[in-house]
Specification:
183 residues; alpha+beta; 2 domains; 5 helices; 4 strands; 32% helix; 18% strand
Length: 183
Amino acid sequence: MDYKDLSASEKIEQVREYRAYREERPYLAVYLKALRRNDQRTIDEYESFGDNPRQIIMNRRAYDQQQKFGFTGKTLNEYGWLENADFTDVERIEFIDRKGWAAFNYITIGQGVNGKWSYGASYSTGGELRSQLFDRWIGWRLRAGDMGKDFQQSERVPHSRFAGVVKPPCRTTGTPQKRPCQF
């Protein structure tokens, strides 16, 4: 049976089974409250973002994040996920550990439609690749680059989902550093 055809109590049960990240919990709370109060306007708005609780909450949060940068389009791809916004003036700064190796660690800096800058960092810790794209806005470009470099050099990643990740080795020596590497 299609998720949207379920009764309110069945939807509530499925939504409560979804384990949301801390950043997603406010959206989950709004949707649950709407289901409990039978607020059809809010339910319709949220359910326009996907076909299951996970898609609905993740797409709704991503849409709100995109609005911070001036993007207003809401287009879902063939799998039901929100299409990524196209930042302008995008720059990629790569951190290569050894000569001839691929760049698995990099920072991407981009500017939104409204002129706000942001950064995203992608990094690998050996067997795992993590990526975080444009979730914080920075007022100007140079600060976005500095924030991205701080992210890359830090002992722990400042965002809750990636807490405890060890920083990559220094690109000049190849060994883990207690102090940040000089770029």
